[in-house]
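Take the subject:
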Amino acid sequence: MDKDSLDPAKRFRDSDDDFVSNSNDILDLSEILVQTDGPSKIPEDYRLTLFMDDDSTPYARVFDGTGVKKLLNPVDKVAFIDYPGSFGVHEYLIEALSYPHRYFNGFLRLNLGLEKNGHLIFQDTVQFKVAPFLMTSNLLPPDIVFTSEGNGNALFIDQLEDFVVNQIGISVRSCPRNICKDDRWIQDQLEFGYAEVPHRTPMSVVLDSPRVNGLSTYADKAILGPDVGFVDYQYSGATELDYFGNLEVTPAVYANGTLYALGRIYYGNGNYPGWEGRQVSDALVGFLHAQVIQAPVELFSDWLFVGHVDEFMTIVPAPKSTLGFKVLFASPRLFYNILNDLLTTGFGDTLLFEDKPMSFYRGDAMLSVSEILDNDELYETNVKCMEYLDYNKAVILKDFGLQEDDIIEVPALYDTVMGRDNVLRVSGYFPSKQ
C-alpha cells in the first residue's frame, strides 16, 4: 500500500500497478516456497498449476521469486509452472492489494495443483492473512506533527512549530494554503496508523476520509512514499460522522475478560434508541470491524452538530494512575453544579464569556450566572445532552473496562443549532477564545 518507486512522476501506490518497482518493494511481499520430494521429472501428461480461490483472486498478485515475472493477478487467475525436479525449490512472492473490508475477510488462499490430462487430481493450499490496519493512540510518542495552514492560524502554527521543534525535538509538516485551500481540519481528513508483518519493520499507513475539501488529495500527493502507505474509502452520501474527528483509539485496555493490547477503536454514530439521523457509512464501519484486533466500540454522537466523539471525550496521560491514562468527559451536570454554587455564594451577577462570541456566528456569548440558571430552555437542552452523555459513559465503562475514577468530568454547556440536514442538534456554547 506504500509507494517504493523513486519516480517522482508516479503518484500511485505499489498495489495500483502490476509490477514490482525495486528491492524495497520486494520487502513488502511475502515469500512462498514450492518444494518437491519426488522423482526428477513428471510424465508429459502431468503439469503443475498455481491458482487462487475465487474469493482471493481480486485481492492479490503472485510473482516469481525475483519479482520480475507476474504469474497471477485479478485477471490472470491460473499459471502453469515448471516442475522443480527431485528435492527442488521454486520461490514465489505474493502481494496483497487490499486491507480487509466488509466484503473481504483478509484471507488469501493460494493453491498448488497437479493436473493429469487437464484434470485436477491433487492440490495443496497455503493460506495468508493480510496484516490489518492498526490505529495508533494519541498517547504514543509522536514522530511528526502535521498541520494545515488556513486563514487566521499562521501565528498558531508558528508558535506550535517553535514549541514542537525546540522543546520536543521532532519535525512539523504543514500543508500550505495554496494546497489545502484554507482547509484547516487535518484531524478530520487523516487517521494515522500502521501495518506490521513478521519479516519487516512496521509500515506507517494513512487512512484518508471521504471529505471533499482542500485536504482531500494531501495524503496521496504529499505523504504517500516508501514505507508510508495510503488507504482511502471514497463513497457517496458521506456525512460529518465519516470524518476522523469521529474516529479514535484507546491505549491498551482490559474489558469483559479480554486484553486489547493495542487498544479499542471507538467512533460515534446515530445509534441511540428511537433516534433517526445520520449514520456512519457501511463502508467505513465494515472496514474498521474487518481489522478485528482493535474491536471497535460504537458511541452515540449524532446529537452534536458536527457529530464527533472528540467533542465530548478525549484520553490524556496519567502516569501515576492504574491504567496510565484518564478519560476527560464533558458534563453539563457539573457545569450547572458549579453555577449553582456560585449563585448561592453571591456571584449571581458575575458575567461569563465577557466579550466573547458564540460559535457559528450566533452573536455575543456573554451571560451572567443568574441569566444562565434562569434560562429554562437552555437547561432542558442540557438535561437531554446529559442523558446522551450518560449513555455513552455507560458504554465506555463497560467496553473499555474503566472504573468511575478513570473518568474526569469537565464542565460543559450546550446550545441548540440547526444541523445541515435541517435537524435540530447542539453545539458547545463555550465560545472561541478570540
Summary: The mean pLDDT is 90. The chain is about 20% helix and 30% strand. The longest strand covers residues 119-129. The radius of gyration is 27 Å.
